[in-house]
């Protein structure tokens, strides 16, 4: 039973539990919830499709992609660049033509002024008092429809005819293709084929996609998962654990499977999990902000 009146929410005896209860019932306050593993992408899934990779490749920054998905992405970006380049060339040509027409029009106006400089024209009326010219008044039309301006009136319905359309700067599109995850430049030649080692569990009846654990380290035979930091050896594409890298590989910098020399750049840490909703092992708490209940 409460220790105060039903609607008294400003007193010192309004307890924390009562406040939380009223906030939940009234729709006020911030809701927080810890995210589970269903909200985090598995380490062996594509960063684009969020599905297990059939033909995995990895970028230099350690992001895993399905080869078909990342090639489609690169082709789409190249087609988009070609379309923007055509639009840029078209706008550039139209801008140059407009500048040429403006220069020709200005030259024509200057020539007409030069021709009319010493002669009386229809727009000039001389007032004579006593046979002597005293002043010249120019009565040329100041209408915005004169001198060919009827074809250059602004239109607020067409973007190309709006008053500020001429102030737009022409910018050539960038042909660089950026990684959809890291935002760094990405090239097809930078993609490295990845080779996962299947876990030898003896269960042939279950499909590979249905298994929760599918792969293992080819050196230590440790099971690979989101909880196990991994790295890709660039020379062969094998996926090993970071523990194997620190304790075995970095001692003499020799590949443990083919005994070849490797360098530090040949060890690429595999970025684990993470979607647009949550990162891996960081920020795994989702919050829903709602109006606050004043105490």
UniProtKB/TrEMBL annotation:
Q: Which family does it belong to?
A: Belongs to the NOSIP family.
Q: Where in the cell is it found?
A: Cytoplasm; Nucleus
Gene3D superfamilies on file: Zinc/RING finger domain, C3HC4 (zinc finger)
Q: Name one GO cellular component term.
A: nucleus
Principal subcellular localization: cytoplasm
Q: Which residues form the Nitric oxide synthase-interacting protein zinc-finger domain?
A: 4-78
- Could you tell me which InterPro entries the record lists for this protein? NOSIP, Znf-NOSIP, Znf_RING/FYVE/PHD
* Gene source species: Glossina morsitans morsitans
User: What name does this protein carry?
Assistant: Nitric oxide synthase-interacting protein homolog
The keyword Disulfide bond belongs to this UniProt entry's keyword annotation: no
Q: Which SUPFAM superfamilies match?
A: RING/U-box
Q: Name one GO molecular function term.
A: ubiquitin protein ligase activity
What keywords are assigned to this protein? Coiled coil, Cytoplasm, Nucleus
List the residue ranges forming a coiled coil, or say none: 78-105
């Amino acid at each position: 039973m409460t220790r105060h009146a039903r609607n008294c929410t400003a007193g010192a005896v309004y307890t924390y539990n009562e406040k939380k209860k009223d906030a939940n019932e009234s729709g006020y306050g911030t809701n927080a919830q810890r995210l589970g593993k269903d909200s985090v992408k598995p380490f062996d899934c594509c960063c684009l499709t969020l599905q297990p990779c059939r033909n995995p490749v990895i970028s230099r920054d350690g992001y895993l992609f399905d080869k078909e998905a990342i090639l489609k992405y690169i082709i789409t970006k190249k087609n988009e660049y070609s379309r923007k380049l055509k639009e840029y060339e078209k706008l550039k040509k139209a801008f140059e033509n407009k500048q040429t027409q403006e220069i020709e029009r200005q030259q024509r106006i200057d020539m007409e002024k030069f021709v009319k400089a010493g002669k009386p024209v229809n727009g000039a009326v001389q007032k004579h008092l006593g046979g002597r010219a005293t002043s010249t008044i120019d009565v040329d039309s100041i209408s915005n429809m004169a001198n060919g301006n009827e074809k250059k009136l602004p239109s607020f319905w067409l973007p190309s005819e709006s008053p500020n359309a001429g102030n737009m700067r022409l910018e050539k599109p960038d042909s660089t293709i950026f990684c959809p995850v890291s935002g760094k430049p990405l090239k097809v030649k930078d993609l490295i084929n990845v080779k996962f080692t299947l876990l030898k569990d003896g269960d042939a009846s279950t499909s590979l996609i249905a298994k929760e654990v599918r792969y293992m380290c080819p050196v230590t035979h440790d099971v690979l998962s989101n909880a196990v930091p991994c790295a890709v050896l660039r020379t062969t594409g094998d996926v090993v654990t970071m523990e194997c890298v620190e304790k075995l590989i970095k001692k003499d910098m020799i590949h443990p499977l083919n005994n070849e020399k490797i360098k530090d750049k040949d060890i690429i840490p595999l970025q684990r999990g993470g979607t647009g909703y949550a990162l891996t092992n960081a920020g795994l708490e989702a919050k829903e902000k709602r109006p606050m209940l004043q105490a």
